[in-house]
Amino acid sequence: MFENLREDWQTYGRDLSRQGFWVMCVFRFGQWRYRVKPAPLRKLFSFIYRVWRTLIQIMTGIELHCETRIGRRLLIEHFGGIIISGDTVIGDDVVIRQGVTIGLRHTGLRGAPIIGNRVDIGAGAKLLGPIHIGDDAVIGANAVVLTDVPAGALAVGVPAVIKPRRAQSESSPADLSA
User: Fold this and answer.
1) Which Pfam families does the record cross-reference, listed alphabetically (predicted)?
2) CA 114 → CA 47, 80, 129, distances in Å?
3) Would you identify the CATH topology of the domain 2-165?
4) Which of 84-88, 114-118, 135-139, 173-177 has the lowest mean pLDDT?
């Protein structure tokens, strides 16, 4: 837990005012409490976790359950309106912005997104259902992603259309003025 917290601290630029860091602290504590062996102590920590999680949800507008499997260095860039299902799997170095929903497509049906490494999720994006988002993919702002996104691709629109990403060096000033 402490190694992950140290890494989270660095990810958030050692800035205690970043609400994403608060959420990650409570998340890491929530996962750690499962490893506590004496049942009475684990129950006490579970109660503390539930109180902290509720306070953090109210203060930040970020809902992140401790059952979610998260890799290293998750960066919640902006706070507010973020919901992440407990069934979701998130890889390393993922960036999430405000208004993002990652979760189930239909109530009562299992299956949440599996997000690869180095994925950039734009503001207001919705990733729903048992989909796979490949490594280095970019999800555009307000995109509604209902299908798999291959590695390195761009998903934009409602419903999202998958497009290949151009390398930054390929775009020229003429492309930008058009």
Assistant:
1) Hexapep (PF00132)
2) 29, 22, 9
3) UDP N-Acetylglucosamine Acyltransferase; domain 1 (2.160.10)
4) 173-177
| Cβ neighbours of residue 110 closer than 8 Å, sequence gap 6 or more | 87, 104, 130
Any idea which of 45-54, 108-117, 124-133, 144-153 has the lowest mean pLDDT? 108-117
Buried b (16+ CB within 10 A) or exposed e, 95-124: bbbbbbbbbbeeeeeeebbbbbbbbbbbbb
